[in-house]
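2024-03-11 09:14:02 DEBUG pipeline.ingest accepted 1 chain
2024-03-11 09:14:02 DEBUG pipeline.ingest length=350
2024-03-11 09:14:03 DEBUG pipeline.predict start
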Amino acid sequence: MKRFLRFAAKWRAVAIFSFVLVVSFISTDCARSVPQTGETTSNIVLDGVELKKTSCAVVIPKGKTAKIDVTDDSYWNKIAFEGSVEEWRGVFVKNRKIILKAFCMGQYPVTQELFEKVMGYNPCLFKDDIPGESTALRVADTISWFEGIVFCNKLTQATMKKSDCVYYADSSCKKIYDEADMKKRVIPFFNQKKKGWRLPTETEWEYAARGGIENFDKRNFAFSGTASVGGKLVLDGKGNVFTDANLDEYGWYRGNSNKMPHEVGLKKPNALGLYDMTGNMWEWIYDWLDHHLAEGTVENPIGPESGADRCLRGGSWFDNAYDCVLCRRFHNAHPGIGHSYFGFRICRSL
């Protein structure tokens, strides 16, 4: 009997140890499976076809937040002179503390191939071949804000669940926003609890463009991924910088684009692995343009409830260097109009 009890106690100990070991391994593996900042996802697959240059980069990992507390916004005076107008300040201004939750963002702006695959048509103006570049992977142009909204919902339904859609035609968030709503210029309702594809908010875009840093003094760049040559002012009271050798390596703009947009991802990425955040195509943001940014603590801001213009960021193939700085906010952008230098990239809450 004593031998049996010793035998049973021994195997009980082994079983407990094994259980602890298994739980430990599972916990470790789960922790490792959570993508960290800068890690990328696979390309999007639609109808069994993998679409190139459609991967995302993690900006803020799942379960984490970023806190940007700006007590001194004079950093932007190193980019634009002190007397420049508000649209040059960006959204991280003095006395404003912003808390951002986890999200990932497309490594590239939406391509013509991806847009046409999702929407069923190609509205782009620039469809001619460029030697050495893929027309299918050329950045989508002439896109309206409303088209970007519908695109996100359609892509969500194609790759996730219908219930994951972010944009709705009604305040109760029961009717998913679609092409019919777009044609009527219905203003969508943004359900922030959903995890589907969407346009980035202005704070998300600028945070990602800056490389995902909370202390701007560590990387006070004029452009996404690089400082201006010699760290000089890009916009000043006497003259503007029209070309910049550093920008040549990171983005397409008037100084190197040959008056046209290009295939995405041919220039250098920023610290998060995001391409074309500066130049190539102005990118639609979800927010209405806010001329009066609220001070104090703001969590996941999505802009004012109404307005006249939606915001775009990043500059384009059409613009000079001084219009492509990462703190520049495009104004006078009607959401129903898609110019030849308007495009977008997607993101998703984690």
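2024-03-11 09:14:41 DEBUG pipeline.report Residues 1-31 have pLDDT under 50 and may be disordered.
2024-03-11 09:14:41 DEBUG pipeline.predict end
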